[in-house]
Amino acid sequence: MRALIQGLSESEIMEIQGLLIRLGYYRGEADGKFGRLTEQALAGFQRSYGATPEEVIGEDTCKMLWKFLQGYDTYTIKPGEIIDSVAVRFSTTANRILAANPGLAEDVRVEGQNIVVPYGINVVDTNINYTYEIMEKNIQSLRTRYPFIEVGTAGKSVLGRYLYYIKLGSGPREVFYNGSHHSLEWITSVLLMKFVENYSKAYVDGTALERRNVRDMWRESTIYVMPMVNPDGVDLVINGLQSGNPYYNDLIRWNKGSKNFSRVWQANIRGVDLNHNYDASWSMSKAAEGVYGITGPGPTRFSGTAPESEPESRAVADFTRKHAFRLVLAYHSQGELIYWTYSDKTPLESSRIVQHFARVSGYKPDQTSGIASYGGYKDWFIDKFGKPGFTIEVGRGTNPLPISQFSKIYKDNIGILLMAAVI
Ligand SMILES: [Zn+2]
């Protein structure tokens, strides 16, 4: 087994461990290290699916792992077979199969027809370092399992990664949630992706989330989610600086000579802090740089050469201008705080809304001060559109927050994520 494992990155091993946890074979931590426990768990997985544990992970095992990671299989309906029996065979429900195959009728048996069968397990893994690649795969999987969600891109990052958005619902009340403006805060991408998964699932199952009927919400509201605004930065802090990076030498210089970005880097790949790059008191943000000893690109707080100088902030602003959002949430970590004001422009209803958010989350309404109150996305949104905008700081501790905080963060925020779409 060793040989192939040595070719896998830490993130890839973590991804496999995360899957083995979800399937119930692994009780350890997803730490990216292929130790004895992981080896045993993988052997258990192989035995269950009819493969003999091998010295190297064979093609069959790889194929099986990949299928489970993508969360669905394709299947050819056999003579006389009905959807219910396919559902039992794959530990899923007829409802979810029907949702994944628009046009497929429950009572018609079409032998020989190829269908998509979503597995019973969830797609979005909340135990691992959530890279851009994993998010991209998850988005593709969710779109296959739930073809009624719309996926698009609002633009590309400096290094050409897509700025994905996901559209949930068809109602007239449009809201926008985004995450990971800051690299070290990628746990907010996991939060938003998990929300997308659970919301879509509840829609198919016709169930409620926090006592809210999701099918009703679907008709009332449209929720746009952009889970990762800064994919290049997230990649840098999780996977480290790769030799092919076109900013390789610059990045080391901007990082004061250090090749370690994993605990400090918040900016995009050109050293611009995206949440100081919007056209709201931008010149104040620029002027305040001196106070923080900032003279150019770096890990944090450099506002760029002009508002929207970066493709990521420009794409988010363009996307916002194209819609008429009633409200926006910009997700950050950490502090368990909700920022809701911007200069004297804060809409009157924001104070009422933030009280509701505080009640359902246990987070504390707060107001930014100093450099943090300039050039941010929610500042810009409030300034330009006069509608409620919020920066939500999830979790507590030092960024990047350990993924072990995920359950609490999700529990704290699910109420806000639902309420923001209907309030
Ligand atoms: Zn932040």
Q: Would you give an account of this structure?
A:
The chain has 423 residues and is an alpha/beta fold. The protein folds into three domains: 2-70, PGBD-like superfamily/PGBD (Muramoyl-pentapeptide Carboxypeptidase, domain 1, Orthogonal Bundle); 72-118, LysM domain (Membrane-bound Lytic Murein Transglycosylase D, Chain A), CATH 3.10.350; 132-233 and 309-419, Aminopeptidase (3-Layer(aba) Sandwich). The chain is built from 16 helices and twelve strands. It has helices spanning 2-6, 10-22, 36-48, 59-70, 83-89, 94-100, 132-145, 187-205, 214-220, 231-239, 248-254, 282-288, 311-322, 349-361, 377-385, 406-419, and strands at 72-76, 114-118, 150-156, 162-169, 173-179, 208-209, 212-213, 221-226, 327-333, 337-339, 364-366, 389-394. Helix 7 runs parallel beside helix 8 (187-205), helix 8 crosses helix 16 and helix 14 runs antiparallel to helix 16. The N and C termini lie far apart (53 Å). The mean pLDDT is 93. Zinc ion binds at residues 181-182, 185, 275, 332.
Concise account of the structure shown:
The chain is of the alpha/beta class.
The quaternary state of the protein chains shown equals single chain
How many individual domains?
Answer: 3
Order of helices and strands: HHHHEHHEHEEEHEEHEHHHHEEHEHEH
Low-confidence runs: none
- Supply the number of helical segments: 16
Task: List cofactors, ions and other ligands.
Answer: zinc ion
